[in-house]
């Protein structure tokens, strides 16, 4: 299955933040939408960065509570690994595993088109394994 097909089922909406917002404001977005990362939007729908819960925890560990008043730009990941709608989910899973991150912005024609998480990929893979198992049981029962 492709990333695009997964997004067609789950939706293309992405919660974004601005680089000039504070970590406090970004934290509220994460809590409000119950998500683990927020994309930092750039010009023309591009991705300027990503801020995850881990980034916020690191900032708090280094700077204490004062970090919550820092701009997102100070703590976001700037070199964002992305995927495209045409990529296979297995390829995305390998990228996430190798990079040790859980969220991947999805680009279409160079613009942000969605976000997938490791949970999305694992959920699809578990459903796929269940279908394969059911098919094998049905085949064995029929013979």
What features would you describe in this structure?
The protein is of the alpha/beta class and 143 residues long. It is 46% helix and 20% strand. The chain is built from five helices and six strands. Strands 1-2-3 form a three-stranded mixed beta sheet. A three-stranded mixed beta sheet has the order 4-5-6. Strand 2 (37-41) and strand 3 (47-52) form a beta hairpin. The radius of gyration is 18 Å and the shape is elongated.
Q: Quick gist of this model?
A:
With 143 residues, this protein is of the alpha/beta class.
**How far is it from the N-terminal to the C-terminal residue, by CA?**
30 Å
Helicity level, as a percent range? Answer: 40-55%
Shape: elongated
What share of the residues does DSSP label as strand, in percent?
Answer: 15-25%
**Sheet of most strands:** 3 strands, mixed
Please compute the radius of gyration using only Cα atoms.
18 Å
């Amino acid at each position: 299955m492709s990333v695009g097909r997964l997004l067609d089922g789950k939706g293309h909406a992405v919660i974004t933040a601005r680089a000039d917002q504070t970590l406090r404001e970004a934290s509220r977005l994460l809590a409000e939408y119950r998500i683990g990362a927020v994309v930092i939007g750039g010009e023309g729908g591009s991705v300027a960065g990503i801020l995850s819960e881990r980034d916020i925890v690191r900032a708090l560990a280094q700077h204490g509570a004062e970090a919550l008043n820092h701009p997102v730009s100070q703590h976001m990941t700037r070199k964002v690994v992305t995927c495209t709608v045409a990529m296979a989910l297995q390829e995305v899973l390998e990228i996430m595993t190798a990079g040790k991150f859980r969220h991947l912005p999805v680009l279409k024609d160079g613009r942000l088109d969605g976000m997938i998480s490791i949970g999305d990929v694992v959920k699809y893979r578990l459903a796929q394994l269940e279908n394969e198992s059911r098919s094998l049981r049905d085949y064995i029962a029929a013979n």
